[in-house]
Amino acid sequence: MGWMHTARFLTTAAQLHHLPPIEVPEIAFVGRSNAGKSTCINTLTQQKQLAFASKKPGRTQHINLFSLGRQGTTDAVLADLPGYGYAAVSRTDKQRWQQVMVNYLVSRKELTGIVLLCDPRLGLTELDEALLEVVRPRVEEGLKFLVLLTKADKLTRSEQAKVLSITKLQAGGGEVMLFSALKKQGVGEVAQLLWQWSHPAGVATSIPDAQVANASVVADGAIGQPQPPQS
Ligand code: GDP
Questions:
Q1: Is 64 in the pocket of ligand 1 (CB under 6 A)?
Q2: Nearest C-alpha to atom 25 of ligand 1 is from which residue?
Q3: 34 lines ligand 1 (CB under 6 A)
Q4: For residue 35, which of 31, 71, 129, 193 is within the disulfide window of CB 3.0 to 4.6 Å?
Q5: What class does CATH assign to 2-218?
Q6: Cα separation of 181 and 178, whole Å?
């Protein structure tokens, strides 16, 4: 779907209070490190490097925002949150990061939906379950939720069906879909769902890009002008 292909870098922040307030729906991508999150975002947006900017040194513990909407306007924002559970990260960094993430998930006003990416060969891990617990009250209040089982090409059809039904039981009312960047499985379905989440009345409420960019400058001064990702 063309809408996802309009994604472009908006801003990056290490702390929740450095994120600009934005008057459009925001959809967060979360998941364990190596779950396939960057590959998924790049596949959905049809841009080879977009989410890999999040893996650059200095950006790995940042929330990276991408604007969606036709040229010059933003009608939704994608938030790429750093992967969790990476063994090589120090305990202090892990704890700091978990706190930023919990704060974001609990209090980011703009948050409309969450996509939790999960390697189906591992299933939902303890950390994924903890995240589900954190967002449960907001999901009960209407926050949208999708568990995306990545790398589906690594499973047989029967394995796919099995993990889909198990995860549906665990996801407690959230949607669950299979996805493969390699085989382009689920790409259209996910794009369609995210569009519906962001446009509940079927119409886009968009704001000019300049307004969004200004918001990020005013936010704290800590971010400064949005920088395009280095390639
Ligand atoms: P992230 O850490 O969650 O951003 O994960 P990446 O997007 O970097 O992917 C982790 C690894 O999984 C990489 O080696 C990717 O090539 C691989 N991967 C990601 N998506 C797929 C997929 O759909 N199919 C297969 N076979 N491998 C994938």
A1: no
A2: 151
A3: yes
A4: 31
A5: alpha beta
A6: 10
Q: Which of 39, 42, 55, 153 to mutate to test the pocket of ligand 1 (most atoms within 8 A of CB)?
A: 39
Q: How confident is the model at residue 206, as a pLDDT?
A: 78
Other C-beta atoms within 10 Å of 185: how many?
18
| Residue 215 backbone class (left: φ over 0; alpha: ψ -120 to 50; beta: rest) | alpha
Where is average pLDDT lowest: 101-110, 143-152, 207-216, 219-228? 219-228
Amino acid residing at 147: V
Instruction: Give the three-state DSSP class for 149.
Output: strand
Measured from the CB, is residue 154 less than 6 Å from ligand 1? Answer: yes
36 neighbors 117 (Cβ within 8 angstroms): yes
Q: What is the pLDDT of residue 224?
A: 35
Domain residues of the chain, as ranges?
2-218
Going 44 to 47 to 49 to 53, the CA torsion angle's sign is: negative
**Contact 175 CB / ligand 1 (< 6 Å):** no
The pTM (predicted TM-score) of the whole model is: 0.89
If you average pLDDT over each of 83-87, 98-102, 193-197, which comes out highest? 193-197
141 C-alpha to center of ligand 1: Å?
Answer: 32
